[in-house]
Amino acid sequence: xxxxxxxxxxxxxxxxxxxxxxxxxxxxxxxxxxxxxxxxxxxxxxxxxxxxxxxxxxxxxxxxxxxxxxxxxxxxxxxxxxxxx
Length: 85
Fold this sequence. Notes:
Largest sheet: 3 strands, antiparallel
Shape: elongated
Mean pLDDT: 87
Structural class: alpha+beta
Number of strands: 3
Strand order of the largest sheet: 1-2-3
Helix content: 40-55%
């Protein structure tokens, strides 16, 4: 996975950790997303790996889970590991 470095030296990243907690609270499983809402295994894989997804997918998840965007994802800036060589 390619991560972009920002001006401050950290790494920019959108993470979907909140999605899994929101799904659990709402009683929606990954299986249900696939069977009832026609989510592909590839979409779920990208979410699990914190990879890029479309705004259409984010919108669809918000509709299904009756939640806001911040209940699904968050922006975090990770520190780059120090180079000890």
